[in-house]
Amino acid sequence: MMRQMTYRTTKDLITTGVEIRLFGLQKDNKPFNPSLFYNAILDDPTSDSFSCHPKLEQLEAIVKSKRAKSRSQFHLPLKLSDHLSIGVTGYNMIIEQRISTAKYFYTAEDEVKEAIGTTRWICVDTNQPLTRMDIDYAFNYGGEKIVFSKKELEDIQTLSEPGILLLGFRDIKELEPHYQVTHPYFIYPDDTVKRANTQPKIAALIPQEERKDREGNQIEPPGLQVVILPFADEIRSLPVLSTPKPNQEAIETAKEVVNKLYMKEGFDPNRYENPYIRNHNNMIQAIALETEFEPEVDTIIPNYELIEHEMTSVIDRFKEQVGLDNITEEELLSFAVGQKRKVIDQDLSDSYKKLKLEGQSVENLWEQGQLTKLTNDSLKNFLKENGIQPKKVKADLVAQVSEYLSKKFKTN
């Protein structure tokens, strides 16, 4: 009974695109025999889907080598000068892992098949399906809709030939940490096809040397890190906070605290699974195999017992040096609430100034030509109250309000 259920479940998994690999281990110098059970599952036991290893260490090395390779994100030319360019491929070396997109399946004639979704555009007036040639794109500008074809829209978004243009060289000290607006990319020489329809961005190219472990395995490849830089209007000016200068004794103790928390082998994200994604995958596996669900152990949570055992004395010494030895948990919480209260009071003060301005009627501000001083929410609320669907951009909102008031007073 269990064999038949296993065969059926395995067949369904293979049908849906799941790749099954068998790793056999030798026991007591006896070779692994797949004919006892696994030959019925594997189509060809002699293929790459089956491998036998005498030691667990060899199996771990094979599993690591089977990890998914980094997928390329783009192929672009790196233009070093007017007459010299090389092709490069961009990769995401480190990026947040997310749950994969769900797929829909249905059963037909005792087979599990994937349901393929399609999108159709229907005309509101004629209720007839539309082709891609029938669809245009429009933007609201000055209260009017500016219509573009798909080709015209692509030409507008593509300002020049796609590529990475070298503008010059700067000292790496000038690259501030807050200049990074998204995760960096990694580029490696590769003469392939260009990617079109890319929006221009300014980035810093940081060289990266190759790193290997003791066994000679590559940890980091040689190439260039592409750090996307913000434009001027994307950098906010933050208030400079004055903090008391700590004494040298407290600085040395703080270094000791950090050194005790330092991981000798370094931080390797591959050693820590995302518990949310693992639980999600385990739940799907339990449903597919009709087994009980076992929650994943969260290895990201710090070992507080070990920290308390190893660091209690140095933490207490640091608290005494900075004057926190007599403070209680309740006082810390009340201090945090007080800091939050200051921020709220400042926000209320700013809101009061806005309300004082918005206390005037929208009509008065329109007559004075000061609609731009209103917030987006105020403009949207005014439009909704008058039965008009508001746009997203402030310039369009101002244009909508101006158009409405112009027609209103012209009619009166």
From TrEMBL:
<dbReference type="InterPro" id="IPR016194">
    <property type="entry name" value="SPOC-like_C_dom_sf"/>
</dbReference>
<keyword id="KW-0539">Nucleus</keyword>
<dbReference type="InterPro" id="IPR006164">
    <property type="entry name" value="DNA_bd_Ku70/Ku80"/>
</dbReference>
<dbReference type="GO" id="GO:0043564">
    <property type="term" value="C:Ku70:Ku80 complex"/>
</dbReference>
<feature type="domain" description="Ku">
    <location>
        <begin position="127"/>
        <end position="249"/>
    </location>
</feature>
<dbReference type="GO" id="GO:0005524">
    <property type="term" value="F:ATP binding"/>
</dbReference>
<dbReference type="GO" id="GO:0000781">
    <property type="term" value="C:chromosome, telomeric region"/>
</dbReference>
<dbReference type="GO" id="GO:0016787">
    <property type="term" value="F:hydrolase activity"/>
</dbReference>
<keyword id="KW-0067">ATP-binding</keyword>
<dbReference type="Pfam" id="PF03730">
    <property type="entry name" value="Ku_C"/>
</dbReference>
<keyword id="KW-0227">DNA damage</keyword>
<keyword id="KW-0234">DNA repair</keyword>
<keyword id="KW-0233">DNA recombination</keyword>
<keyword id="KW-0347">Helicase</keyword>
<dbReference type="GO" id="GO:0003678">
    <property type="term" value="F:DNA helicase activity"/>
</dbReference>
<keyword id="KW-0547">Nucleotide-binding</keyword>
<keyword id="KW-0378">Hydrolase</keyword>
<dbReference type="InterPro" id="IPR036465">
    <property type="entry name" value="vWFA_dom_sf"/>
</dbReference>
<dbReference type="GO" id="GO:0003690">
    <property type="term" value="F:double-stranded DNA binding"/>
</dbReference>
<dbReference type="Pfam" id="PF02735">
    <property type="entry name" value="Ku"/>
</dbReference>
<keyword id="KW-0779">Telomere</keyword>
<keyword id="KW-0158">Chromosome</keyword>
<dbReference type="GO" id="GO:0042162">
    <property type="term" value="F:telomeric DNA binding"/>
</dbReference>
<protein>
    <recommendedName>
        <fullName>Ku domain-containing protein</fullName>
    </recommendedName>
</protein>
<dbReference type="InterPro" id="IPR047087">
    <property type="entry name" value="KU70_core_dom"/>
</dbReference>
<dbReference type="InterPro" id="IPR036361">
    <property type="entry name" value="SAP_dom_sf"/>
</dbReference>
<dbReference type="GO" id="GO:0006303">
    <property type="term" value="P:double-strand break repair via nonhomologous end joining"/>
</dbReference>
<keyword id="KW-0238">DNA-binding</keyword>
<dbReference type="InterPro" id="IPR005160">
    <property type="entry name" value="Ku_C"/>
</dbReference>
<dbReference type="GO" id="GO:0006310">
    <property type="term" value="P:DNA recombination"/>
</dbReference>
<dbReference type="GO" id="GO:0000723">
    <property type="term" value="P:telomere maintenance"/>
</dbReference>
